[in-house]
DNA sequence: TATTGTTATACTCTATAACTATA
DNA sequence: TATAGTTATAGAGTATAACAATA
């Protein structure tokens, strides 16, 4: 209905992101995970022993919100912690989590592949560099 | 820190969108508006007499959420309604709203221009078509 | 002093359900 | 029977403040 909106990059960014988040949320719901939880699991898999604070800095999640998120993954049996020192806890996948993560990665890979497939070939290679530049530019101004 | 994440289109889409939303939110806060309210104002300006339901369908906002949103814009004095029939109300900008909208458009135009400027020139022309394709593809599966 | 983890809390966005009135 | 508008409510996501324990 509204061509003015449908060609604005900002609005399109919002809508495309929301649409893809809905796709990812639906896929991960079959595994009992939310998108952020799945991303955290993958990060722990890639960086065994990482702390809550470090995850939060990497994924831009506040410490206060990491606590219940990690607790939920722990309750589900996918992660466990071992004390690094008196105040930090290194997080690791449990044995069950190590098996589970491959299903998580499969869902996310399918999701990412779908995004790529939706883009007409001439534009395909340009999306990632364009989005990286937008994100990087915002970081530069917004947070230093 | 995490290169695996930083080259995934899905994750980048999320982060780029969140970063740009933060930029837009900050700009519009100076006018006392939230992003959705500004978009609704522009839509009413482009389509005088449009109803709440029609706005909701265009912008993918639920009827239940349109009611307080329209009430807030009305309380601020930017819009007013005239009955179309017994159940529908056409929305229009007030005189004050008609003056105000140019400031809203200026903020949004600056925001959109900033996004474009952040993208390196070789990739610039590809973002809008790529995002359109992603959004359209999602619509086809998710709701069509 | 700064950092880690935690709890409590609040605000926004988005969603469903249920209702009234009207077409 | 379907649509427009409204209210109440609930779930996520994200934010700050304050605290204890530790570096």
Which tags fit this structure?
globular, 144 residues, DNA-binding, homodimer, two-stranded antiparallel ribbon, mainly alpha, 2 strands
Written account of the structure:
- The structure is a homodimer of 144-residue chains.
- By secondary structure, chain A is mainly alpha-helical.
- The first copy, chain A, contains 7 helices and 2 strands; from the N terminus they run αααααββαα.
- Chain A has a two-stranded antiparallel sheet.
- In chain A, helix 2 runs antiparallel to helix 6 (95-118) and helix 4 (52-59) packs across helix 5.
- The radius of gyration of chain A is 18 Å and the shape is globular.
- The mean pLDDT of chain A is 93.
- Chain A binds a DNA duplex (23 and 23 nucleotides) through helix 5.
Q: How would you briefly describe this protein structure?
A:
Chain A is mostly helical and 144 residues long. Helix content of chain A is 72%, strand content 7%. At the A-B interface, α1, α2, α3, α4 and α6 of A face α1, α2, α3, α4 and α6 of B.
Quaternary arrangement of the chains shown?
Answer: homodimer
What's the average pLDDT of chain A? 93
**SS content category of chain A:** mainly alpha
> What is the helix fraction of residues of chain A, given as a range?
over 70%
Radius of gyration of chain A: 18 Å
> What order do the strands of the largest sheet of chain A run in, or round the barrel if closed?
1-2
Relative strand content of chain A: 5-15%
Number of helices of chain A: 7
- Number of beta strands of chain A: 2
> Outline of chain A, from the CA principal axes?
globular
Biggest interface, chains and residues, is: A-B, 59 and 59 residues
Taken in chain order, the helices and strands of chain A follow as HHHHHEEHH
Q: Which stretches of chain A of 5+ consecutive residues score pLDDT under 50?
A: none
Largest sheet of chain A: 2 strands, antiparallel
């Amino acid at each position: 209905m509204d061509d003015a909106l449908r060609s604005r990059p900002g609005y399109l960014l919002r809508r495309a992101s929301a649409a893809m988040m809905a796709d990812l949320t639906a896929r991960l719901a079959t595994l009992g995970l939310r998108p952020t939880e799945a991303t955290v699991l993958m990060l722990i898999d890639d960086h065994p022993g990482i702390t809550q604070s470090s995850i939060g800095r990497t994924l831009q999640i506040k410490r206060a919100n990491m606590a219940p998120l990690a607790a939920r993954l722990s309750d589900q049996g996918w992660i466990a912690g071992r004390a690094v020192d008196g105040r930090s806890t290194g997080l690791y996948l449990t044995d069950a989590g190590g098996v589970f993560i491959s299903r998580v990665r499969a869902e996310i890979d399918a999701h990412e592949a779908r995004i790529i497939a939706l883009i007409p070939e001439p534009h395909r290679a340009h999306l990632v560099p364009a989005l990286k530049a937008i994100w990087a530019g915002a970081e530069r101004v917004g947070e230093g």
